[in-house]
Write a structure and sequence with these properties.
single chain; 251 residues; alpha/beta; ProC C-terminal domain-like fold; 2 domains; 12 helices; binds NADP nicotinamide-adenine-dinucleotide phosphate
Length: 251
């Protein structure tokens, strides 16, 4: 399926790098689209209308506020639409793009390295063949998880900010090592390498986080002392509070 990216900003660039295919893209700043096409190959198209004609589906990589304006530009020319617009329900996308198949996907930044979870907001009325083709395409960027739209805000709250959280956790661990005399680059190598390996291990154990903790925690040992310290300093409540903050829940 030949996709046309409308908007060549951060998320378009991350997805284009992940796909690694020649890209078809636009941007209000033509130089931005040209830079993306120069980097990954492909073509920066002059107008959104031309892009829609050349692509089998347009991918909305602009900001949510531009939904109506962009839809007006490609009206009658787009054959299918994939929205990655944050906070815009599928219903609103369908309203802006009546009569063509529409799918709502929410990718995360690690798509750039083909490890980004992509959420697919289920809709009972989707065009099956189109949806399947879109999911196949996004599956190359990382696992696609299908869920109901009501679950989307919480799911996004867990997922989209997580790279920043893990970066903060890594930084805190590295700092702790540096305070005790390890060179920062060595500490970072150890911490980040172990993060990636641990994620894979948890997956291999069927997402059983407790099993993984038990495996490395000998009774009365150093891991038990480390975990107890993390609990004492509120690691669980910190992550719960972070999600509450993201979702705007009242304290
Ligand atoms: N970043 C994420 O982690 C993430 C995750 C999931 C979904 N999303 C969604 O992905 C979309 C893009 O996010 P982003 O972070 O990539 O934003 P971004 O870096 O600002 O990129 C959006 C790009 O679209 C351009 N644009 C604006 N109007 C346009 C038009 N009419 N035609 C063509 N291009 C146009 C913008 O140009 P100007 O800046 O000059 O207006 C900008 O270069 C958003 O809707 C966001 O909700 C983002």
């Amino acid at each position: 399926m030949r996709l046309g990216l409308i908007g060549s900003g951060n998320m378009a660039r991350a997805m284009a790098r992940g796909w690694g295919d020649p890209v078809l893209c636009t941007d209000v700043l033509p130089a931005r689209a040209r830079a993306l096409a120069a980097e990954v190959g492909g073509e920066a198209v002059e107008t959104n209308g031309q892009l829609a004609e050349q692509a089998e589906a347009v991918v909305l990589c602009h900001k949510p506020a531009q939904l109506e304006a962009v839809a007006a530009e490609v009206a009658g020319r787009a054959r299918g639409v994939v929205s990655i617009l944050g906070g815009v329900p599928l219903e609103a996308v369908k309203h802006a793009y009546p009569d063509i198949p529409a799918v709502r996907m929410l990718p995360s930044t690690p798509v750039e390295v083909n490890r980004g979870v992509c959420l697919h907001a289920r809709d009972g009325e989707e065009d099956e063949a189109f949806t399947r083709a879109v999911i196949e395409r996004f599956d190359r960027l990382g696992p696609v998880v299908t869920l109901d739209e009501e679950q989307l805000d919480t799911a996004m709250g867990l997922m989209s900010n997580a790279p920043a959280y893990y970066a903060l956790v890594a930084e805190a661990q590295v700092d702790a090592g540096v305070r005790r005399g390890l060179p920062a680059d060595l500490a970072a190598e150890l911490v980040v390498g172990t993060m990636g390996g641990s994620a894979e291990l948890i997956r291999r154990r069927g997402m059983d986080t407790l099993a993984v903790r038990r495996e490395v925690t000998s009774p009365g040992g150093s891991t038990a002392r480390g975990l107890a310290a993390l609990e004492r300093h509120g690691v669980r409540t910190a992550f719960d509070a972070a999600l509450a903050g993201v979702l705007g829940e009242q304290a």
